[in-house]
Design a protein that fits this description.
The protein is an alpha/beta fold. It has 21 helices and 20 strands. Strands 6-5-9-8-7 form a 5-stranded antiparallel sheet. It has a 5-stranded parallel sheet with strand order 11-14-17-10-18. The chain has a 4-stranded antiparallel sheet with strand order 2-3-1-4. Strand 8 and strand 9 form a beta hairpin. It is elongated, with a radius of gyration of 39 Å. The protein starts with a helix and ends in a 5-residue tail after the last helix.
Length: 527
């Protein structure tokens, strides 16, 4: 029982012993401990200091040892320490290596893992048994450029390498480890997951997210469309947005992404009509090293890979060539992408939102757009109405743009004159919201006072005024009422051809919605 108590009380004794340098001081320390039968577990000597760790030392022996060592010539003082310097440095290094996001892998000349941090285990998907003291998989030794570094002694910097189909590509740096003779005896591989690179790039370059709350409207038709879009956002299915130029298709695409389960991942837009066909393929799918003249060393990921986990917005998808339509269809079907010039496929998880201002149905009928790709894209259609069909929103949008540009250009504007508003509301807006925004910005630049007037509104197309017939037919006798009726019919007919909405017609002509419908029926005009 007494022996057990003494064993429990035994502790490690760790001492820092500063000394005045002289020959034999380490020998004197060792001799004292040897005579007492005390085992030295470790000893570290630095300039002017000896660090000592002894084991199997009980409380009574501890005081005696300290007293006896203090009597050695040259010893200045003795201080107990919690751990040896080497352990402190090792613990600090281990904490640093474990905390970094990059994978750090150390392999010796026999391919055995001698060091592996948690990030490397995660990136390379190693098991606990594989992570330490075990041979690294031969495929990884090759793909991570470890074998090449062992054989050549050359280090590699920021090389993008392919691991597996599921893991895709990662960025690798290798550093050869050499012995005193200069022979390569191991390799340090620093591995960075390209997903983390993409996230870092997105966090540094992305703008503020756009939501449905950022889409201003008061019209019933827009309320219906936004309601549909909110429901569609929760799905992961492909969405095809149709709408004229300037209606805000990308705005809706960004709002759909922000309201989806992918909101924290990347939103990657590309305008398919703005990039030549020869470049569009490499932009979408990426390319391998040496795929063509001028290809970046190490290759380049495409937008499908950059959008992995998030949303890829294909604007003006109707302008994609027949060759790329085939490749795009294959990616949508198989959820795998192959870089130009490579035979390796990468699994991707991307939601596609496509948009076009063209009639894909008509293009399918004309054999200029693949029917199977159309059905792949048109899983959930979303039609954005033109500005002329959301008459109620013109005044709202005009005031919002006026406030925005007045603040930006530091103009003390308070609003529009009635004639300026009437001019805005009677215009057909072929360029839709984009055109309205440009016209308001131009008007703000022209205003001298506090009000935007009609003369400040420069419309690029025909205004909402009605071109009346220049002649009235007199070949047959007509009463005044019949002649006025003929003019009224022509006015209604021309107004409908321009505005295609009884509400807009009523606003332009100064009639109620029901009065317009009644007159259209009177003259048997379609509506």
């Amino acid at each position: 029982m007494q022996q057990l108590e003494e064993r429990v009380q035994e502790v490690y004794l760790r001492l820092r012993i500063p000394y005045i340098d002289r020959i034999g001081i380490v020998h004197d320390i060792s001799s004292i401990l040897s005579k007492r039968g005390t085992s030295i577990r470790s000893m570290e000597v630095e300039e002017g200091t000896v660090f000592l760790e002894c084991q199997n030392v009980n409380q009574d022996q501890r005081l005696e040892i300290i007293e006896e060592l203090s009597g050695i010539s040259g010893v200045q003082t003795i201080v107990e320490i919690p751990f040896m310097p080497s352990k402190g440095r090792a613990d600090q290094l281990d904490a640093i290596v474990s905390s970094v996001q990059d994978g750090i892998l150390v392999v010796n000349q026999d391919g055995i893992i001698t060091q592996c941090n948690p990030a490397a285990v995660r990136i390379l998907r190693l098991s606990a048994q594989q992570a330490q003291g075990q041979p690294l998989d031969p495929g990884l030794i090759k793909h991570l450029l470890i074998r090449e570094t062992l054989e050549t002694g050359c280090q590699h910097t920021n090389r993008e390498v392919f691991i597996t189909s599921d893991q895709g590509y990662c960025v690798v740096n290798t550093i050869p480890l050499r012995n005193n003779s200069g022979d390569v005896v191991g390799v340090i591989a620093v591995i960075r997951d390209t997903r983390e690179v993409r996230n870092l790039m997105r966090n540094m370059t992305t703008s503020l997210p756009m939501t449905f709350a950022d889409i201003p409207f008061i019209s019933p038709v827009m309320e219906k469309v936004v309601g549909q879009a909110r429901r569609y956002a929760t799905s992961d299915s492909t969405i095809l947005i149709n709408g004229e130029t300037g209606t805000g298709k990308e705005l809706f695409a960004r709002a759909l992404h922000s309201a989806s389960g992918r909101a924290n991942a990347a939103f990657v837009p590309i305008n398919c009509a703005a990039i030549p066909d020869t470049l569009l393929e490499s932009e979408l799918f990426g390319y391998a090293e040496g795929a063509f003249t001028g290809a970046v060393k190490g290759g380049k990921p495409g937008l499908f890979e950059l959008a992995n986990g998030g949303t890829l917005f294909l604007d003006e998808v109707g302008d994609v060539s027949a060759h790329l339509q085939v490749k795009l269809l294959r990616v949508l079907q198989e959820q795998r992408v192959r870089r130009v010039g490579s035979n390796k496929e990468v699994a991707i998880d991307v939601r596609i939102i496509a948009a076009t201002n063209r009639s894909l149905e008509k293009m399918v009928a004309e054999k200029t757009f693949r029917e199977d790709l159309f059905y792949r894209l048109n899983v959930i259609p979303l039609q954005i109405p033109p500005l002329r069909e959301r008459f109620e929103d013109i005044r709202l949008l005009s005031n919002l743009f006026l406030k925005r540009y007045a603040e930006k250009l530091q103009r003390p504007l308070k609003g529009f004159s009635p004639s300026a508003l009437q001019r805005l509301e009677s215009y057909n807006w072929p360029g839709n919201v984009r055109e309205l925004k440009n016209i308001i910005e131009r008007a703000v630049n022209l205003v001298d006072g506090e009000e935007v007037r009609s003369e400040h509104i420069f419309l690029s197309g025909p205004s909402g005024s009605i071109d009346l017939p220049t002649l009235v037919q007199f070949e047959t006798y007509q009463t005044l009422e019949e002649r006025l009726g003929e003019v009224e019919r022509i006015i209604l007919q021309q107004t409908y051809q321009r505005f295609r909405s009884s509400r807009r017609m009523g606003a332009v002509l100064g009639l109620s919605h029901t009065a317009v419908l009644k007159k259209m029926r009177k003259y048997e005009l379609p509506l």
